Automatic annotation (TrEMBL):
Originating species: Caballeronia hypogeia
Protein name (record): Purine nucleoside phosphorylase
Bias kind Polar residues: ranges: 67-83
Keywords: Signal
Ranges of compositional bias, category Basic and acidic residues: 44-60
Recorded superkingdom: Bacteria
Length: 97
């Protein structure tokens, strides 16, 4: 019986030690481990998120990239003018067919 309690006590103490170890903040770990490759990856991820947000805003204002493309430049320009008007606080111009 003593053989079983000793390993259990060691396991319990080891687990308690692991749980109470101080953990460095995630932000400190990220800045310390920033390599040029990681920086470029973060920049690409940020640029992709920005482009996706712009596309969602265009789609919200009537542009459909997967839709009919016969009026392609006009559809995109119309959606962009609506966005610009919203940002300027002016009423949106009438859209062309």
């Amino acid at each position: 019986m003593n053989k079983r309690t000793a390993p259990l006590a060691v396991v319990a103490l080891s687990l308690a030690a692991l749980v109470t170890l101080p953990v460095a903040p995630v932000q400190a770990q990220d800045t310390a481990a920033s390599t040029p490759k990681q920086v470029k990856k973060a920049q690409r991820k940020e640029a992709r998120a920005k482009k996706n947000a712009e596309l969602k805003e265009l789609e919200k204002n009537g542009y459909n990239p997967a839709g009919e493309q016969t009026n392609y430049p006009q559809n995109l320009q119309s959606a962009q003018s609506k966005i610009n008007a919203e940002k300027a606080g002016k009423p949106a111009p009438a859209s062309a067919p």
